[in-house]
């Protein structure tokens, strides 16, 4: 059967497959937090022609307005001939760009350079080969020898030399010539730094002559169609070699789509990109390269490789200059990856004398503690709640997402929305602040329970009116729907999801501090990393116990430090060498099965300051 995906994509569906399965098979974006089980309610699509009747899954997760407007769950829809589907009907706004664009290079030494040379013209008196002639001149200019010749460059040299009237530009890496171009192209020299997150992927385009960031783009990691977190993706990949290759293709396709979009939005062609640096957790690292991940999932949780790696773009199927170099920062352990190494490099003040804690918040939360005696790191499975997944009205930080909430005891409810439009959901920063505000005015108690307005005293009439029963227990209305037609709420299940996530982070911090044999009071700084963390407020995270109770002035945010680390390694190859030295000094701690962690986790669930 043929169905149309707006605006202009037509796909063929197979007999007995769901719309979700068809979209995934055709590599089309669709949220799939629960792997098609029908429990998450996130795979919403809008059907504009041949709308199927709602089934039990639709009725459980969608409100009347959504149902009437043709919204259905893709996992519940059986495709019909002529069906027309809208997928992403929420415009995106990239927070990552504003976080990174202000970064300026202090040192510019990418390790790759472009060199312009003008060669002599052959004659009967000078019968040197084209390659010999060019390389001899290049050696005079750079003072280096170039003993190797690749088929790629060797086969091009006769044409390139004559096209440029024997003037050409060589892209040089050490004593290796990566590429040659006719004429002087030294001003056209670019690189990209990539942060592969479990939920989203960010790509920054950099002018390697000046160190300026030209553009930052991000997109949802296409692997989310096969699971929301690293454990679900490891499970999926272990089912068969074909599924492992599917995950590899998904992340490579995500990055190549972003590279294509960069080319469309700038005047930089993909062939002018000569270097790429990548950070990501160990699972993302292995899936992208195509390494075996079976042993990451079972004790003793062994990765294939932790040290820094280098490949060509051609080897990894990246749509940039085929000879470009791709550098991976080192992993630290099974679930503490190159993103943590990048974050340490990107927030290098945590390596100064004293006791400094780095928290890289995300679907997989990494912790790094540096004292005067040791450096240790661990990960804790915070889950996707911080990214809005698993929350009924949760969403990524896009236009229409509530990012900040203010409540007063008198009953005033104020929400700040990305894009200043009517809210359609809530992102991670809004979730944390919203729950803290609900706690502050008495809507939620420290156990995380939404109170019964008929049994509690002192709650204003307006706040009481906003508490009602829903499908997931009591819920609190943040905004009443108008044009969109539905209310944005936080319910009892949402609060429980946050408690699990923040409890894991807080317990991980306490465990790490105890292992290092220092007290919480002895921490000189706590640095929160991640684009999401940039929008958090110290009092909110202290009030709900996301981090243990310490002096607020010790807490700071640094934006997406992991991506900054990738950028630093892109523009200065010495930073990559530093990361290679650093990872060997860090001890990796596995929290799974730790009695200390389990005990701390149970006491870290309360919505209160946690000592």
From TrEMBL:
Residues 1-91 form the 2Fe-2S ferredoxin-type domain. PROSITE patterns: 2FE2S_FER_2. Transmembrane segments: none annotated. GO terms for molecular function: iron-sulfur cluster binding. This is Putative electron transfer protein. It comes from Desulfosporosinus metallidurans.
